[in-house]
Amino acid sequence: MPEEQTGAPPRRVLVLAAVLAVALAAGVAVLSLVTRSEQDKPADGPLALVTVPASQADSPECATLVPALPAQLTSNGTTLNRREIAEPAPPATVAWGAPDAIVLRCGIDRPAELTQTSQLRTVSGVQWLPIEGDGTSTWYVVDRNVYVALTVPDSAGTGPLQTISDLVAAKLPAVPLRF
User: Fold this and answer.
1) Exposed end of the chain (fewer CB within 10 Å): N or C?
2) Where are the transmembrane segments (predicted)?
């Protein structure tokens, strides 16, 4: 029995188009899962960091503090291992954890936000100037011979700040604030 002319494409073309559409959708779904699982894996390669002005990175204070930094930090009950920094690595800089790293920089220049009216916080006898960013906060040690910056993701909790405060208090003597 002959098929009627309805203006629709032949059945074979419709079936082939449906099969191709399903295959394409399956391919996109598989690619999406593979890509997402690669993005969800913590980065374990060297951490790329930009260089910031750190005129005192080679100071005796940084030479005392940086080697004393721990190989691991605890953040919200999770142990974060020290992370390799990609070359050219900024001097006197250490990082822990992945994918959101905690970064310490020693010997940086005085933070522009430090004024006589800045709201400072004291942790274990160390005065810090907290500066909130987008998803991170940077805490500056402001009462030692060198400025130290600790950048932490908002999810980090207070453990890293406490650990670094204890170490700074033990290794670097306090000095009057400089504005």
Assistant:
1) N
2) 12-34
CB atoms within 10 A of CB 168: 26
pTM for this model (two decimals): 0.76
Cβ neighbours of residue 65 closer than 8 Å, sequence gap 6 or more: 106, 146, 148, 167, 168, 171, 172
> Dihedral angle at the C-alpha atoms of 10, 12, 16, 18, nearest 10 degrees?
60
CB distance 172 to 124 below 8 Å: no
Of 78, 58, 81, 57, whose CA–CA distance to 69 is shortest? 81
The string of pLDDT tens digits covering residues 101-114 is 999 999 999 999 99
Q: What is the DSSP letter of 85?
A: B
What's the alpha-carbon Rg for the chain, to the nearest Å? 27
Closest C-alpha to 96, from 70, 67, 129, 123: 70
